[in-house]
Design the sequence.
C-alpha cells in the first residue's frame, strides 16, 4: 500500500539492524527469503506474469486488504500515543484511495466479474491469513497488531524493490510501484521503528508471542503467493 505518504507519516529514524524488528525477521528464515524471492514475484518483476495468475491473486488480495484495513483500524485504537495514531491513520488513507482505485481499474482491465470483487470463494491461504488478522485484531495488544502489519508491509517492500521492473501492463507495474515508492518506504521504516520502540517495553513472554506471530504471518505470506503459482 503506497502513495504520497511522506507528509502524513511522522518522521521516523531509519531502523537499524539491531532492533526488535530485525531480531524478529532473522528468526523467520528461511520463510522470509522464500517470500521476498518467490517465483510469483519474479514473474511480476520481469513482466512474465500470466493474466490468469494475476487475476486470481488480486481477487484474493482484495479480500486480504479488507481485513488488513480493519487491522489498521485496530492499530489506531490500540496505539499508545497520538503521534502513532496519526501515522497509522495516514496509511489508512492510502488503502482507501489510490490502492482501492488500483483494484477497481485492474479488475476492469482483467474483466473480473462483480461477484468475484465482492464475495469470491476464498482460497485456504486467504482464510488462514484472514483468521490470523482477525484474531490479532480482536485479542492482540498494540505490539501484536504492529507485528502482523510489519510482516505484511515489509515483505512487500522487499520483493517490490528487489529488481528494476518495467512490465508493460499497468496492472503489474502499478502493483509493484504501490509497494516500492518513497512514501511506502517511509511507511515501512516507520512501522519498523515503531515495532522496535514498542518491543523495548515488552517482557520475555510478550516478545516470544510476537515472534510466533511474526513467523506465522511470514508463513501466511509465503502460502498466499504459492496459492497463485504452483
Ligand atoms: C497478502 C498480502 N500481503 C501484504 C500486502 C501488502 O499490504 C498485500 N497487499 N497482500
Sequence:
Amino acid at each position: 500500500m503506497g502513495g504520497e505518504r511522506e507528509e502524513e507519516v511522522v518522521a521516523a529514524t531509519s531502523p537499524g539492524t539491531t532492533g526488535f524488528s530485525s531480531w524478529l525477521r532473522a528468526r523467520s528464515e528461511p520463510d522470509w527469503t522464500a517470500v521476498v524471492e518467490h517465483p510469483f514475484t519474479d514473474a511480476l518483476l520481469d513482466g512474465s506474469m500470466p493474466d490468469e495468475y494475476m487475476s486470481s491473486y488480486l481477487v484474493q488480495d482484495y479480500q486480504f486488504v479488507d481485513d488488513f484495513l480493519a487491522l489498521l483500524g485496530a492499530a489506531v485504537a490500540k496505539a499508545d500515543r497520538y503521534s502513532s495514531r496519526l501515522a497509522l491513520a495516514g496509511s489508512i488513507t492510502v488503502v482507501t484511495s489510490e490502492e482501492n482505485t488500483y483494484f477497481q481499474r485492474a479488475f476492469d482491465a482483467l474483466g473480473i466479474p462483480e461477484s468475484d470483487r465482492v464475495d469470491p470463494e476464498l482460497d485456504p491461504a486467504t482464510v488462514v491469513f484472514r483468521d490470523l488478522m482477525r484474531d490479532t485484531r480482536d485479542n492482540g495488544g498494540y505490539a501484536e497488531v504492529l507485528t502482523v502489519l510489519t510482516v505484511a508491509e515489509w515483505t512487500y517492500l522487499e520483493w517490490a524493490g528487489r529488481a528494476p521492473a518495467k512490465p508493460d501492463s499497468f496492472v503489474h507495474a502499478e502493483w509493484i510501484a504501490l509497494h516500492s515508492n518513497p512514501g511506502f518506504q517511509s511507511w515501512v521504516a516507520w512501522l519498523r521503528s515503531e515495532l522496535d520502540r514498542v518491543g523495548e517495553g515488552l517482557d520475555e513472554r510478550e516478545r516470544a508471542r510476537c515472534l510466533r506471530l511474526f513467523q506465522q504471518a511470514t508463513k501466511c505470506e509465503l502460502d498466499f503467493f504459492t496459492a497463485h503459482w504452483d
Summary: The chain is about 75% helix and 0% strand. The CA atoms of residues 157 and 179 lie 5 Å apart. The chain has one domain: 20-226.
